Amino acid sequence: MNVSKQSVCIIGLGYVGLPLAVQSALKGYTVLGLENDTQKNELINSGKSPIKEEFLETNLPKVKLVATNDPSAIKQADIVIVCVPTPIDEMYMPDLEPVKTAAATIAANLKLGQLVVIESTINPGVCEEIVEPIFAKAGFIVGKDYELAHSPERINPGDPIWNVTNIPRVVGSFTKKGLARAVEFYEDIIDAKIMPMETIREAEAVKIVENSFRDINIAFVNELAKSFDRLGINITNVIKGASTKPYAFMAHWPSCGVGGHCIPVDPYYLIERAKASGFDHEFLKIARKINNSMPEYTVELMQDALNTIKLPLNGTTVGLLGISYKANVADLRESPSFQIIKHLKKHGANVITFDPHTPDKSSEKSLEDLLEKSTAIIIATDHAQFQAIEPTLFKKHDVKIIVDGKNCLDKLEIENNGILYKGIGR
Ligand code: SAJ
User: Fold this and answer.
1) Is the residue at 162 inside a domain?
2) Which residue among 122, 156, 386 has the greatest number of ligand 1 atoms within 8 angstroms of its CB, and so is best to mutate?
3) Residues enclosing ligand 1, CB less than 6 A?
4) Is 262 among the residues known to form the active site?
5) What is the pLDDT of residues 299-321, one digit of tens each?
6) Could you tell me if residue 206 is inside a domain?
């Protein structure tokens, strides 16, 4: 089939689906976006991006992209791509409801011969054990009535270099034909390697493995930070030293916690599915436990620092700088800041917050408002604005202690201004 004549329906126009929709349209596809949020649809249909991202803000006005909440749009597409969230609940249990709902919606509006691709991050087994049975129940046979493939998204919010146009992909499918069609589509819209996997389970496993790899490496340096705090060793200098090894070392950095929609979430999808097969991922679980302990560890550092100047945490005003989970983005998902606030309040601290990227979630209107009221500060997000703060500004507002949860400030400069500085592992 001539790819330029194909039409694509993308389910879920978030930070994954919307860039994919825009790129597909830029490559000549007729693109329909199926999105529940009608306000988002109105913005998109008027050429405005609901997401602050340069690729989108530049290209959305250039393309003809129809966003709707009417599932019958699926019937018009040759390719249907699912880009819905795969979160965890408060018990860290995977939540596949959005994927199940999307699959059922497609099955109810299937056009025979369609290629269905799941891009959402899912654990090995989801396509065969959850998605395909939904289509089978509707009377459709994979490989005969439709094709089913998986190509995990690898969008990295806020990344200035890697985006939907140039990030390599892996693809897996039930059939050779499904694999070929999916590879052909991605090779047409992405200027990077598209790697076909032997099975769909392998494709599902790739994303979970790459993000679990990151989680365990962060846990490794977080545990070292706790140990080196006691040994009086600066972990960040040691990691920089280890990084001089030109091979077989990959730097990760300790911090007040691991947030986001990927790293702290994806390992649980494998942990839970493997458990159902009788295997216990002890290592992945320990890494999650270590990373989940960092917000409380950060508050303990604050409590100890206050005690050295004879102040209790109870009743002290602590200013939290940063609510987003990651520098220079306005994304709160699984942000460690919420756990830090919880632990500070548990100790009776008076907590005030400021994040320039999420002003509506901040208790203070400005950085200076927060500094004026705070006896002690925790840096929870390494936003550029915080890294640019002159240490003299902290001194001007008589801040006594800074716990740098992202090791992003100049320790020596701050100490030279008579302020007690504590980093994570330094
Ligand atoms: N973090 C650390 N130490 C590190 C790196 C990160 O504490 O050395 C923390 C961050 O502060 C943040 C969390 O971990 O709270 C996640 O950070 P991240 O840089 O991994 O950012 P994410 O969540 O946007 O991860 C995405 C992922 N992309 C996809 O899943 C498609 C991940 O695979 C990428 O590796 C990551 O971007 C990236 O490399 O930036």
Assistant:
1) yes
2) 156
3) 153-157, 210-211, 214, 218, 252-253, 255, 258-260, 262-263, 325-326
4) yes
5) 999 999 999 999 999 999 999 99
6) no
